[in-house]
Amino acid sequence: MDSAAQSLNPSFFGIEDYFAAKSLISSRSFEIDEYHGFGMVPLADLFNHKTGAEDVHFTSVSSDDETDNDADEVNSETDVHVNTVHGEKLTKNFDSDKNESAAAITGDNTDSSHSSECSSVSGDGPMVLEVIMVKDVKAGAEVFNTYGLLGNAALLHRYGFTEPDNPYDILNMDLELVLQWGLSLFSSRYCRGRLSLWRRLDYSGCVSQNSEYFEISSDGEPQIELLVLLYIILLPEDLYRKLDLTTSTAGNTNGCIDMILTKKHNSTQDNSSEMTKDLLLTESVCSSLLELADMRESFYGSSSINDDIEALKRCCPVERKLYHALMLRISERRILEKLRNYVVSAAGRARSPKTANTASRKKRLKKK
């Protein structure tokens, strides 16, 4: 600041100014392409978000002096959603008609100085962004973009709003909460050992802002890494030591957990994720998931989900913070309900093979 005192006004660089600029950049900038990186695009923030129902896409337009092969390669991908204003890369479009329309809009045909200013550093010609309508919109209706396939937690955290019935909602289950559950049953040394084995098997949760967590999908299905961790924590001591020894001596830990699963359950080797999940969802793992769901539910206090729904109905639309907070609470609590239903269904599947095996054994004994 001191070295540039003549060109910079210190009064414009206070903490409030910093927060204002940071807020604009974090909520309005997006990645134009790999070369140019992130940028602020005037007018792009006119479009609000709608999940899976956008009206427009943004795409970068380059000069058409690329090779025919490059053009064919890019045009073959234009049916895919050209990603969008917030947080996604843009695809170059080499259609000559679109270049002409973009040039007409930007005035590149008539102003050579403007054209040189817009040229990319590589000298390939002008680079502009084009807004493309992807479906018809009635006159006077709001035009929507999409910021990506984001759940309500991400939408609220990044942009300050939520969507009802968002199909991309998820619920986070913190690793810290799982360890808290483990410490309620076992010693600290026991839990550290099981967690260490889980990590040596090359498993980990999702990580954001130095916090590790597991995702529960919108239909209540838990992340498989969480199931593996719970399974290892609940392993009998002899199987735990066998898995620990196998992991320590094997050069490659891939498949170690599958080997234990198939041996323990006397099943044939099957690498499908569905088969693995079914074997991981033992009665004890299902019980632990229900306990974790109750622990996670306690974060919302003593009110029930029905209380939250009634509060949302009474909430005035101008109370934006309260409204969207209640929307997020309700969407997360609905996922917890679906998690419980998922666990009950999985527990039923886990018991049914045992019932079938018992019946077949009795049948064989009668024949004998």
Automatic annotation (TrEMBL):
Q: What name is this protein filed under?
A: N-lysine methyltransferase
The Swiss-Prot or TrEMBL record annotates one GO molecular function as: protein-lysine N-methyltransferase activity
- Per the record, where are the segments of Acidic residues compositional bias? 63-76
Q: Where is the composition biased (Low complexity)?
A: 112-121
Disordered: annotated span: 59-79, 97-121
* Keywords from the named record: Methyltransferase, S-adenosyl-L-methionine, Transferase
Its GO CC terms are:
nucleus
What's an example Gene Ontology biological process for this entry? methylation
